[in-house]
Amino acid sequence: MTTGTPPRVRMVELGRAAALKLLAEAPLGRVVFSHQALPAIRPVNHLVALNGDIVIRTHMGAALLGRAARSEVVAYEADDLDPATRTGWSVVVTGTASPISDPAELARYLTVLTPWVDTEMEQVVRIRADIVTGYRLVDGELGS
Question: What's the mean pLDDT when you consider all of the chain?
């Protein structure tokens, strides 16, 4: 690669297990949903349940909570990209969101998932991992 020439990068599709593993290691992501007939995106921290579902906490008046109450389809995305090398990864999970209401499950998630913002976040939402897509951007010069 010569000076000033952008690095050659190729995109490699990830399998479900590899994509969810990367997502589980990410500190935060973005939940995408419809709000007032328009796309809305909110940054949130999360955890990945053993079955691959995404679990997040939110507050009582959150727009997402209204969507979850109706089990609407949402997306969840996280990534780790390096602008200098143009490498990294991106994972998107698409599925229905629903509030967690089982008292034992709710208590467990309220204990293990600490929100980043300093506000009451006593609602927990599960995003079913119906569709999981992931891509890794890798150095195109390697293995060519």
Answer: 88
